[in-house]
Specification:
binds zinc ion; TIM Barrel; globular; 5-stranded parallel β-sheet; 49% helix; alpha/beta
Length: 344
């Protein structure tokens, strides 16, 4: 079997995906039309063109441009439902997804309604086609730590089977993790899983701070840990999972090309690394593409790829019985399909 088809068919677990960057183009096109259209967007292919980025400012500009078309709770719910349908068709069996309820202040939809809409969508998706999705609202560094506790209070009544944790994305340098220490301690006390982006735009000190100040259970990205030997040793001993997103790192310029990317080094040093798609629609990549990169560009062997895939199961916040069911499914796939992958 062609390697691309193989990784497409392989049952996959995704731990670092932002719903706000994972909408389907078909659904966004529907929203653009629903709200009066855009003279530059006459077709899906125009929309596709709109998501080819010239540079990082253009990426940010496009991010806010598409947010303008989310104006009612139903837009959020339907977008997430359609995203989960698309992910399910790519054989993603389980995911933990971030979303940013506070990024749509101008939409007129309240953060509470956005949380509710996403929760409804994951319930419907599981009932309709079996994909399991747990949600992690991102309290966002850039909006300031002053609001963080209010945000935690807003999501606390939703802590449940579907809403399981809090995340911290945004500008690592300008808004360091230690500012959010108090809210993370509180979140943990209330029973939330705690994760944070760190070691992507900023260096190892940002990863240290996420570990020491926020006591996170997983690190989003974490790839710049490679700059600090002591940190690598610590991550190896403690087995704190890293949610690595390779295509995203190249597209945002963390590394100039695949040959510079430290994923293989981190794996070979015994760190608990996983591979993820971050903002798949924004970056024009899928989880199968990420696995293809591991195989074709980083030259991982198939047993190593299986190991990475099982790392994601191990690092997830799913209960033990669900993890075992996922391992069984993955192992079944490898037994049935063997290692018969071709390079073209
Ligand atoms: Zn991310």
């Amino acid at each position: 079997m062609n390697y691309r088809d193989y990784f497409e068919k392989m049952p996959k677990v995704e731990l670092h995906l932002h719903l706000d960057g994972a909408f389907t183009l078909d659904f966004l096109f529907d929203l653009v039309r629903k709200y009066g259209g855009d003279p530059e967007i006459k077709s899906i292919s125009d929309l596709k063109q709109r998501f080819i980025f010239r540079d990082f400012p253009h990426f940010i500009d496009t991010w806010f441009w598409k947010n303008r078309f989310f104006r009612e709770p139903v837009d959020f719910e339907e977008s997430t439902y359609q995203t989960l349908l698309a992910l399910s068709r790519q054989n993603i069996i389980y995911l933990e997804a971030f979303f940013s309820p506070w990024d749509y202040q101008e939409s007129g939809v309240s953060p509470t309604d956005i949380v509710r809409a996403n929760r409804n969508a994951v319930r419907r998706a599981e009932a309709d086609f079996g994909i399991k999705c747990r949600l992690i609202p991102d309290i966002t560094r850039d909006h300031g730590h002053e609001h963080a506790l209010d945000r935690l209070n807003l999501i606390t009544p939703f802590l449940s089977e579907e809403i399981i944790g809090i995340g911290l994305g945004g500008s690592e340098q300008q808004f360091p993790a230690n500012l959010f220490k108090e809210v993370f301690v509180e979140a943990k006390n209330r029973g939330f899983h705690c994760v944070a982006h760190a070691g992507e735009a900023a260096g190892p000190e940002s990863v240290w701070s996420a570990i020491k100040d926020l006591d996170v259970e997983r690190i989003g990205h974490g790839v710049r840990a490679i700059e600090d030997r002591e940190l690598i040793e610590y991550l190896q001993i403690e087995q704190i999972p890293l949610e690595v997103c390779i295509v995203s790192n190249i597209k945002t310029g963390v590394f100039s090309d695949f040959s510079e990317h430290p994923f293989a080094k981190l794996l070979h040093k015994g760190l608990l690394v996983t591979v993820n798609s971050d903002d798949p629609t924004m970056f024009g990549s899928t989880l199968a593409d990420e696995y293809s990169v591991l195989y074709r560009e980083l030259k991982l062997t198939l047993p190593e790829i299986r190991h990475v895939q099982l790392n994601a199961v191990h690092s997830s916040f799913a209960p033990p019985d669900e993890k075992q069911a996922m391992r069984d499914l993955i192992n079944r796939f490898w037994i049935d399909n063997g290692m018969a992958v071709t390079d073209n």
